[in-house]
Design goal:
Structural class: alpha/beta
Strand order of the largest sheet: 1-2-3-4-5-6-7-8
Distance between the termini: 20 Å
Number of helices: 10
Shape: globular
Largest sheet: 8 strands, parallel
Number of strands: 8
Radius of gyration: 17 Å
Order of helices and strands: EHEHEHEHEHEHEHEHHH
Helix content: 40-55%
Length: 285
Amino acid sequence: MQLVDTHVHLNFESFQPDLDEVAQNWREAGVVRLIHSCVEPSEFEGIQAIADRFPELSFAVGLHPLDVEKWTPDTASQILTLAQSDHRVVAIGETGLDFYKAENQDQQEQAFWEQLTIAHQLDLPVIVHCRDAADEMARLLRSFCADYGAIRGVMHCWSGTPKETQWFLDLGFYISFSGIVTFKSARQVQESAQMVPSDRLLIETDCPFLAPVPKRGERRNQPAYVRYVAEQVARLRQVPLDRLADETTANAYKVFRLSPEEHLSPFVPGFPCTPLPQTLERLQA
């Protein structure tokens, strides 16, 4: 069984003392690929260094909506240049809207639109952060698609209602579920996880945040724990875990255009380093 953790933040300080051990844990859990998100462009060099150490890591570049006060007239060109500078960049983000902790709606929307434009120009997916902003997010994305055409993307760490979920499915987006889906109180998230079509479903940890049950008491989440997310989503959808893993892995390869042959870790005990036959069939479909 192979898994892809589609959203990690391994550059955070809590991982620095034991990152090699953390990597060994994810490899033993069957995690063969990871997508490292980016909070702000200044992280880029550090993320590159981590990817140099762990070949199964691909990454993004962008500016988080809660950091838009750092947006300058040069930020868009900086993101564009960085995205073109390394073939391991597979997405723009994370970007989006967050109206839970901030009220600078106009500034967030402008920065998000600029990053959508970069993603469209480079034909890269966007990794979208959306908190307490689903109405505005759907409006902006519909407007962008009407003006420029369809754009690929992932609604990351999704916590919206089934109705909101359908909005983004209608826009062609993938929906990624984190440890939140394992929380007893997360009923609407669990309902959303049941309704997403199998070819639009992704899983993630968003580590070091949001450790899933049964690891929720731990202060640090880690990529190996994406298996618990997969197990919960498989239970909710009443499908075998192997099938859920195969579907979400194939979806991750497709949306991020990952090469099955490149950057796979050769160190996963008991796991092959190329996709399973079922995954290859889905990738070629």
